[in-house]
Q: What sequence folds into this?
C-alpha cells in the first residue's frame, strides 16, 4: 500500500514510498486537497482552530494513532519492536475486555516509523520486516536522520489516516483519530492509562500533550490534537522549518503558531528510569503512563516488567545500579561529586547485595542514602579524581 502526502507538492515526491499499517487499504481515505481547519481571531488576540468535520452520524473516533520512531540498524531496537508490537496488541485487547466493550474508543493504534537507510543491505532488512509485519511498518523515502525533517513526513502521512468519509453525507469527512502522537523506541507506554488520560483532557482548544521541557515536549511521547496536525500540514511557517531536533522543531511550530493551544504537561506520569542521566528520572508506579530510557536489554526489561507486568520498582531498584553508569547518573542528579573509587565501591556493594542467595531488595531511597554516605565534600575542586570534572574519567568508568 503506497502512502500519499496529499496534492500540495510537499518536501519530497513519494513514488518510492511504501507504507503499511493496521488499517486495511480500502479504509484509507485520501484527504481533501484543501485544509480541513479554519482560524478565527479570539478575544485574547490569538487564533482559534476549528476542524471542519462532522461528528454526528460518524463512527466513534479512536483515541490516538502513535508512531514509534525507530531505526533498523540497531539490533537491540529490532528486538524491542517485536516485543512491543506483541505487548501493545495484548494491552489494547485487554483494555477493551476490561471495559466490557469492543469499541474503538478504547484502542490506541501503534505503527513503527522509519526513514530510508542509506545502505542497500539495511534497506533490504527493513523491507523484510515490512513484509513480515505489513500492518504496522511505515517507511518514508526521506533518508534516515533524526534532524532531517522526518517528523513532518509523519504528520503529512497521517492526513490520509485521520479521516473517514461520512457514511451518509457526500463530500464530508469524519474524524477518525482524536490525537496523533510520536514516541521513541526506548519508551514503553501503558496504553489503557493513556486512553484514560485522553478521555479527561479538555476539548475547548487543541491540546499538545506530553512532558514539557521549556520550549517543547520531550520525545518519549507527545500527542497533538488532529486539528493541530491538520494546521501543521498546511502551515508555510512549519513547512519552512522542518530541520533540526524533531521534538524541539514541533515545539517551535506550536510556540510560533499564534494559535490558542493547551500545553497539557503530564508531569511525573511521563518519566525516565531512575538511573537515567536526564532531568526527569522517576520510579514506575500505578500512575506512570510512559517510561523512557529503556535503551538496552536490562533497561527494556525493567520498563516492560515495571510498567506492563506490574512488577513494582518502588522497593527494588538495585539492579538498575549494578553498573557504574547508573551510579554516576544518579550521583549527578543528586548533585554529589563522587570519586572514581567511591563509585566503584558503591557498585561492588550493590552487586554483592544482588548476588545473595536471596537477593537484597533496595529502594531508591536506600540507593540514594548509600551515595550520600559514601560522598565526602571535595576540598580540592577540580582534582582529577573527581569524576564530574573529567569526561575522560567518566567514559573510562562506563567500562568497569
A:
Amino acid at each position: 500500500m503506497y502512502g500519499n502526502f496529499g496534492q500540495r507538492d510537499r518536501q519530497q515526491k513519494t513514488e518510492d514510498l511504501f507504507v503499511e499499517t493496521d488499517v486495511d487499504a480500502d479504509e484509507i481515505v485520501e484527504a481533501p486537497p484543501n485544509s480541513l481547519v479554519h482560524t478565527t481571531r479570539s478575544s485574547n488576540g490569538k487564533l482559534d482552530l476549528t476542524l471542519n468535520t462532522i461528528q454526528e452520524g460518524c463512527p466513534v473516533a479512536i483515541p490516538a494513532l502513535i508512531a514509534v520512531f525507530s531505526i533498523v540498524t540497531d539490533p537491540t531496537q529490532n528486538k524491542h519492536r517485536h516485543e512491543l508490537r506483541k505487548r501493545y496488541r495484548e494491552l489494547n485487547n485487554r483494555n477493551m475486555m476490561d471495559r466490557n466493550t469492543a469499541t474503538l474508543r478504547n484502542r490506541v493504534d501503534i505503527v513503527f516509523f522509519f526513514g530510508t537507510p542509506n545502505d542497500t543491505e539495511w534497506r533490504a532488512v527493513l523491507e523484510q520486516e515490512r513484509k513480515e509485519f505489513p500492518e504496522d511498518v511505515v517507511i518514508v523515502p526521506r533518508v534516515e536522520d533524526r534532524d532531517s525533517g522526518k517528523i513532518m513526513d509523519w504528520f503529512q502521512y497521517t492526513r490520509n489516516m485521520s479521516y473517514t468519509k461520512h457514511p451518509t453525507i457526500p463530500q464530508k469527512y469524519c474524524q477518525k483519530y482524536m490525537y496523533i502522537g510520536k514516541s521513541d523506541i526506548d519508551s514503553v507506554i501503558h496504553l489503557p492509562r493513556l486512553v484514560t488520560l485522553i478521555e479527561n483532557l479538555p476539548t475547548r482548544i487543541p491540546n499538545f500533550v506530553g512532558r514539557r521541557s521549556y520550549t517543547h515536549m520531550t520525545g518519549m511521547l507527545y500527542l497533538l490534537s488532529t486539528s493541530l496536525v491538520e494546521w501543521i500540514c498546511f502551515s508555510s511557517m512549519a513547512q519552512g522549518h522542518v530541520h533540526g531536533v524533531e521534538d524541539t522543531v514541533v515545539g517551535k511550530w506550536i510556540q510560533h503558531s499564534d494559535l490558542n493551544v493547551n500545553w497539557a504537561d503530564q508531569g511525573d506520569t511521563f518519566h525516565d528510569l531512575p538511573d537515567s542521566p536526564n532531568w526527569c528520572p522517576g520510579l514506575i508506579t500505578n500512575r506512570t503512563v510512559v517510561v523512557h530510557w529503556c535503551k538496552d536489554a536490562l533497561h527494556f526489561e525493567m520498563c516492560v516488567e515495571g510498567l506492563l507486568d506490574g512488577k513494582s520498582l518502588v522497593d527494588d531498584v538495585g539492579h538498575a545500579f549494578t553498573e557504574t553508569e547508573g551510579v554516576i547518573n544518579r550521583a549527578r542528579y543528586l548533585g554529589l561529586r563522587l570519586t572514581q573509587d567511591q563509585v566503584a565501591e558503591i557498585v561492588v556493594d550493590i552487586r554483592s547485595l544482588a548476588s545473595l542467595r536471596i537477593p537484597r531488595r533496595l529502594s531508591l531511597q536506600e540507593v540514594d542514602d548509600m551515595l550520600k554516605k559514601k560522598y565526602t565534600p571535595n576540598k580540592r575542586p577540580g582534582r582529577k579524581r573527581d569524576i564530574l570534572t573529567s569526561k575522560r574519567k567518566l567514559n573510562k568508568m562506563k567500562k568497569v
About this structure: DSSP finds twelve helices and 17 strands in the chain. The radius of gyration is 23 Å. The CA atoms of residues 149 and 242 lie 5 Å apart. Confidence is low (pLDDT under 50) at residues 1-21, 381-385, 388-394, 396-400.
